[in-house]
Every structure is written in structure tokens, then in C-alpha cells.
Amino acid sequence: MQTVISPIDEQSLERAKNIISSGGLVAFPTETVYGLGADALNEEAVRLIYATKGRPSDNPLIVHVHKDFDITRLVCDIPGYARLLAEAFLPGPLTMVYKSRGVVCPAVSCGLDTLAVRVPSHDGAQRFLSYLDIPVAAPSANVSKHVSPVTARHVYDDLNGKIQLILDGGKCAGGIESTVLDCTGKVPCILRSGLITRDMVAQVAGECDEYHMAAGEKVRSPGMKYKHYSPRCKTALFKYEDRFLALDRYRECTAQGSRAVIMCDDAVAADMEDARILSLGSSESDIASNLYDKLREGEKIADIIIAVAPLKQDGVMVGVMNRLTKACG
Ligand code: AMP
Ligand code: MG
Prior knowledge:
By secondary structure, the chain is of the alpha/beta class. It is built from ten helices and 16 strands. Strands 1, 2, 3, 4, 5, 6, 7, 8, 9, 10, 11 and 12 form a twelve-stranded mixed sheet that branches. It has a four-stranded parallel sheet with strand order 13-16-14-15, sandwiched between helices. Strand 2 and strand 3 (35-39) form a beta hairpin. Helix 1 packs across helix 4 (123-132) and helix 9 (284-301) packs parallel to helix 10 (316-328).
């Protein structure tokens, strides 16, 4: 199968519609990462997502819809706080989990009675979803366990020959996956952290819990239990306080002849002397936006990525640290 990367225009949208309506997969940009979309009402198409990615069959998918789509067609029991949150943050990088009406096929939610719904804000995603006007099931458009893709080229590197079409909407500005918020309880509960932070949710909803799996408990967000976001080279992760140990490790690795690189923000980079740096930038949003791009760059140029955590650990950095720990921990 030949994989084509195409800008988003009338012609590529028509092609995308044909592929999706015949049960195929199309990669598309969002403001977080690239998604691998299929018709959420077509069981075989949804199964093809899992097969193409090598995704475990018990890790449910998020359904993506355009901004004018009536989500009460898909889900019910929407609490008052969820309406307020939707008004405040949608379209945007927030996925909300509700009780499912069972309209989309069971493979989307892996048989759970809930459904995760997202309304992306990326203009290209909106155009794609509006053109199709159906719910589109989509995980990140990478091979399972690899680093999520933030450019069309990243998708191509992972899925060349496996899908027909990648809609190219440039580099994703957000850079880490959406916040996943359980809206089935009295209080919203963060299942996966992201760019919409716990404080932001609490400010609108009054309260916000954060889920941490207790020992022996059945996991509420199945994706959490899997290895994720891993570059295809060795990795090491150091705390900010241990940044000089990271520099020692870099020196050891290079002395042994291995190609090492330090991935860190600009503040840490200032302490790294002449070491080779993969810079994440300075601001919180830069760090999130650059993380996956730099992990993918690192695996191409180095035998080991030595990551150093930023000093700041709250807000958006909760999501960044969650990814960094899974990638390099
Ligand atoms: P990905 O598609 O790789 O961005 O992962 C989707 C994330 O959403 C995973 O962490 C899933 O566990 C989570 N998710 C999807 N559907 C549900 C659901 N119905 N209930 C809880 N978590 C979900
Ligand atoms: Mg993913």
C-alpha cells in the first residue's frame, strides 16, 4: 500500500471521506498529536486501528467529533459541571468520558459502558471531522508504544505502507495527548493529565479529583497500564536536582564511545557546559510542544537520550512528567 502525505484541501478531504467510508484509516492532525482515524460506527474499521498500530485490544479509543456535532447522540447522563467545562474548554485538548448510549461499536470502548469524546480545536481536524460528519475513533497515529507523532513525517515513519493517507496540518502545537477527564461521577476526575490542568478544571467545576491506581484495583483508564511513548534508543531520566549527575553520565557514555545527548529545557541546558543538547525550550508550552519531536530526533542521532526534568513540576508539567517518566523512566 502506498502512503500519501497530502495538504488538507477539497481533494484530500474527498479522498479521506472515501477511505473512511470504505472502512479504511486516515491520519489527521489535531492540536495535541496526530490521530489515526476510522469510522466509529464500523466495527471492522475500528478493529483495523488496533491491528495497524499493534495496540492492545483492551486499551479503548477516543471518539472525535466536529464542534457542531450533538454528542447526546452518543452519550447520556451529562452532569452540569461537564456542560460548564465543555463551554470553557471545547473545542480543545480535553477528552470527556461519559456513559455511552452504545451507538458506536463496542470495540471503541473495549466493551466498557462508557465512551471518551473529544472535540479537537485544530482547524485541519475540524475540517476533516465536519467533512465526514460522523464520529471518528482515533488513537495517536504511531506504532503502539512508540513516541506519539507531532508531524505528518512522524506518522509516515511509523505507518508507511500500512495506511493510504496522512492529512498534513503542520506540527501539532500542543505536543502531548489530551487531558482525559472522567465525567461519570459527582466530581470530575483526571484519568490522564495534559494541557488542561487539574487547576483549570477545578476553577470551572469547583472541584477536580485525580485518579491514581491503587494496588490490586481494576484500572479505570486501561491505557495507563501500558508502556508508552518510548524512543528506540536507550534512555535515562534525572531529576532537576540531579542534573550534574546527568552531565557525569553523559561524559561516561561519550568516553565509552556511545553517542549521547542530553534532553532538557533551556534553564538546565545553561548548566550542561559543552554537552550535546536536545533543547525543549523555556516556557511550559514550549516544553510540552517539543517533547515528542525531540524524543524522535534523539532516537535518530543518539544511542542514549539522557533526559533532565524541568525544575517546575506542577500545572502542564504534570502531564509532561507523566510522559517523560513513561518514555525514559
Ligand atoms: P490514546 O488513544 O493513545 O490517546 O489513548 C486514549 C486514552 O484514553 C487511553 O489512556 C485510554 O485508556 C483512555 N480512554 C479511552 N476511552 C476511555 C473510557 N471509556 N474510559 C476511560 N478511559 C478511556
Ligand atoms: Mg497513544
